[in-house]
Each structure stands twice: as C-alpha cells, then as structure tokens.
Amino acid sequence: MTDPLERLKALQGADLPVHGGRTLAYVYDSGDPEVDRIAREAVAAYAGSNALDPTAFPSLLQMENELVGFACGLLDAPDDAVGTVTSGGTESILLAVQGARDARPDVVRPRMVLPATAHAAFHKAAHYFGVEAVIVPVGPDFRADARAMADAIDEDTVLVVASAPSYAHGVVDPVTDIAAAAAARGVRCHVDACIGGWVLPYAARLGRAVPPWTFAVEGVTSISVDTHKYAYAPKGTSLLLHRDGSLRKPQFFASAAWPGYTMLNATTQSTRSGGPIAGTWAVVQHLGDNGYADLTGRAFAAVDAIVACVEREPALHLVVAPDSTLVTLATDETLDPFTLTDELVSRGWYVQPQLSYGDHGPSIHLSVSAGTLAHVQDLASALGESVVAAQAAGPVAVDAGVVAFIEALDPATLGDDDFDGLLAASGLVGASEQGDLELPTRMAEVNAMLDVASPAMREALLVAFLDRLQRPAFGARG
C-alpha cells in the first residue's frame, strides 16, 4: 500500500512553491521558517476542533476575540467595535454585503455602489444575495471617482464600497470622500482592506505615504482584512470588523425551526475548523507589532527594488505607482505581456497575467511579500532575460478563424458542443474521445485567446474548463 504522506509529497511537486518569495500571487511568504513552523504546529493541534459552538471550544473563542482586538488596534477602531473571524476575504465581503442588505428590510431592490476596480467577490455577493451592483468607472489614476460614486447613491442603496488597495492596481481609493458621501445619505460604507489591512498600518508607521482609510475616517462602518495574506498566517482566515455591534447583528443567523440543536452562526459556515484560527493566533502572537513592522519594511523594500527594475526596462512601465505591496506592470508594443509572463514562469518566477478590461490593455500583477526581498536581484536578472526572450519571440497572434468562432457565439446560450469547441480551440482540452485536459506549460496563446473574448465569453470558457477539471478520480482508494 502506498504511503499517503509520500504520495502527498509527490503530488505537491507539481504545485507552485509557497516558500522562497518567488510566487507573486496566491501566497504570501514571510521568509521566516520559524513562522511556518509555529503555524503548522498550531494548525495540527487544533485540526479536530470545531468553532461552531464557542461554549464547546472556549479556547477558540478566546483566540478569535484576541485576533479581533489586535486588528481593532491596528485599524483605529472605536472602543465598541466588534469583529468576526471568517474563512477568507471573499467570505468577509459576502457577510458585509449580506449584513448591509438585511439591515434594510424596507428596501425591496437593494443596490450597492462599487468602483469598477472593486474585487470580484462583490459581484459574487451580488449574485448570491440579490443586491444589484452599480458599477462606477474609476479615474485615470485607477482610483475610485468619489463624486461619481456619490451621485450613484439613491434611496435603494444599502452599501458603498472602497478598496485599500484595489487588487488589480494596488492603489487606495479616496475613502474619506466616499465614506462622507455614504454617511450623508445614511448608507453603510465598507472598506475592502483584505490586501492592505495588515500591511498599510505598519507602512504608515514606517513613514510611507498612506491615504486615510481606517475607522479613523468618519463614515467607514466596516472593514475586511485578511490575516492569511500580510499577517503571514495559514490559509483560511480573514476578519470582518464593524464600527459597533448594531452593525454586525444582521450578519448573524439563528434557526430553531427544526428538531435538532438551535443553529447559531456568525459566518456563512457552521462547522469551522479550529486549525486556521489557532494557526493565525499563534503567528500573530509570535510576530507582534515589532515583527510585523519588520516584515512590512522588508516587503516595501522589495517593492521599491522591483519598481526600480521596471524603470530600467524601456519596454516596461508601471500601470500606476503602487500605494501598497501590489505592483502592476504593462508593456509597450515591442513586448507581448503574456509571453513575458511565460518567460518569467520558466525562470522560476510566478506572476499573474491580467486580461484587458474596458479601455485598458492587459497587464501583469505581482503580490510582493517580505520573503521576496532576499531574491530581488534574481528577479531583476530574470526580468531582463525574459524581456529579451519575449521580444525575440514576438507577439502572440490568435488565429482569425478562432476569433470569428468566438465572436459568433452567444455565451448565454452556449451548448456542450460549443463549449467543447472553445476548449479545444484554447488548447486546454485534447482531441481524444474522452476530452482529456492537456494543460500547456506555456499559457501565452491561451491568454491571448481569452483576451480577445468578451468578459462574458471568458466566464463561459473558464466555467467549462473548471467543469472539465473537477471530475471524479476513480480508483484512488488506496
């Protein structure tokens, strides 16, 4: 019988590395092995614990309350602020939207006002909870247009949203003006600080210019902040903070309408593993203020070094100067961004391509961690080599027939055969009768094809791709 732990090691060999500072999306690396050791041991110790009932596992309740207290101190929260530990940024955002909706039962068709750069999790919340997303274009600096957002607020608006920072571009919205406009109309204002919530406060303490965005801004009613990002905690925790308890109360769910135990939940989940909570608490206790200040300094030193690298490459430019630890690059006409991404990946640097949106072309996203600093010179070399290689390879061209095929389809009425045709055209599915996936090692042609498709068509194709990926693996019983 195969040793399952040995098989895990083999399976993990195909994954992106979570340590080493070279995976510039999805993971956040402190670069400190002791942080990882403490997190792993705490997660293992509480893997079987269940945060569903705080009276059954009071240690988890204590840890959650201490995490919320630490975050309240970071984010200038008033004394009567409250918070909840969630499973991630998306759940924090879902709960912020659901709570805002349920706080206004008088509104039949609730709406929320979002800048166009707000995270896609708000669109997910709109889909789940029946809250119309009113999208407001951003300014040329990719920050929310506060005046336009104010004009979009009406009697059905239950929530107004700002980002600190936005994921795609790494800039902080004008929270002061947005929150003031929301408060003037009696509407909640949520700041999505899932990325910046644990790093921007320390950046400000280190003397970097950070626009105001915390609870110190009047009118901010809730903030989401992910601990599994720049708190360098294990995956699976975020915080949703409210200015006071009355704002959080609509988030809770209780039901005694069945013969079992009375269900009582603070989040969308019922059973919640204690592992991520304990792992997060242990890391925060270990690092403390001084540790986070040091890690923040390292992360921003890496950001500054990467910005300098970009400025030395004539074919590259920053889309916008970053306010936080997210850096977004764009290329000139001599350099294909998707080929550049492939070249960087081939040299051991995972960066995230971002497709065209509206009037803006494709770009490359980097989430920079403290662990990246030790390897910045390697990144600089890889970036220079990748630019030369990508320029030599030339632009990726999408076959005119594929473009015509995409343009002729209606994503709302696509059938299975159409999906299969798109998957085959993308190179993501082979030509076998089983339609086996053939994941290419280079993604430039796939990304170029997605880039010419409409957003709705991109969604349709990727949903079909995910459907093909998630199929039963029979014969895996050991």
Description:
The chain is α/β, with parallel strands linked by helices and 478 residues long. Among the domains are: 253 residues, Type I PLP-dependent aspartate aminotransferase-like (Major domain) (Aspartate Aminotransferase, domain 2), CATH 3.40.640; 70 residues, no CATH class. Helix content is 42%, strand content 12%. The chain is built from 16 helices and 13 strands. The strands form three sheets. Strands 1-7-6-5-4-2-3 form a seven-stranded mixed sheet, with helices on both faces. The protein has a four-stranded antiparallel sheet with strand order 10-11-13-12, covered by helices on one side. Helix 2 runs antiparallel to helix 10. The longest helix is centred in the middle third of the chain and has 38 residues. The N and C termini lie close together (7 Å). The model has no long low-confidence stretch (mean pLDDT 94).
The major β-sheet equals: 7 strands, mixed
Strand content: 5-15%
- Helix/sheet category: alpha/beta
Mean pLDDT: 94
Question: What is the percent of helical residues?
Answer: 40-55%
| Strand runs, count | 13
| Main sheet strand line-up | 1-7-6-5-4-2-3
The string of secondary-structure elements, in order, is HHHEHEHEHEHEHEEHEEHEEHEEHHHHH
From the coordinates shown, what is the CATH architecture of the domain at 33-285?
3-Layer(aba) Sandwich
Radius of gyration: 23 Å
Low-confidence stretches: none
Keywords: Lyase, Pyridoxal phosphate
InterPro entries: GrpII_AminoAcid_Decarb, PyrdxlP-dep_de-COase, PyrdxlP-dep_Trfase, PyrdxlP-dep_Trfase_major, PyrdxlP-dep_Trfase_small
Family: Belongs to the group II decarboxylase family. Sphingosine-1-phosphate lyase subfamily.
Protein name: Glutamate or tyrosine decarboxylase
